[in-house]
Amino acid sequence: MSFSPRRCLPLSAASAAKVKARAAISLSAAAAAFVTVAGCTSAGDAPRPSVPTPTGPAAAACRALYDALPERVDGQRRVTLTPGTRYAAVWGDPAIELGCGVPRPEVLTPGSEHYNPTAEAVEVDGVSWLLEKQDGGYRFTTTGRTAFVRVTVPDAYRPEVNALVDLADAVRSAVPEQPL
Q1: Exposed site from 111, 125, 163, 174, fewest CB < 10 Å?
Q2: pTM surpassing 0.85?
Q3: Cα 20 vs. chain centroid, distance in angstroms?
Q4: In which region does residue 146 sit, left (phi positive, over 0), alpha (psi from -120 to 50) or beta (all else)?
């Protein structure tokens, strides 16, 4: 693709004033649009986890899970995400993040470079979770369910597994068991 060079011509004082007025209006409109799209909240910079895009039975289970999620996890109040989604949720600051309908973890995927059939897992109130230590906390992913549910818990909420206690009832009731 090529572009033709443009020649800049001097503007009259009246033309320059019109251009400045248009630019100010455009800048104000752009700022208003940015504020609208960015979704301001009273909490300032609201956390925004990556949002999964499940399909089929996993999507239905995730929507049911969203409706069953508690208002508090590990003592932290649920944060409203903007724009809204039924596949992710956040509690507290630092954020405890939940994503439903995430891909199967590599450690559970035969043939994957990181496949580990003896990966560390924990069962909390009837829900089995893959346990993965990360910088600054843990990532837990359900196993044996119609949808993979991932929860990341920062070190600030030690022991990190406590968050799973508050989520177990919702996961058990909304995301049916399914062998791996």
Answers
A1: 111
A2: no
A3: 40
A4: alpha
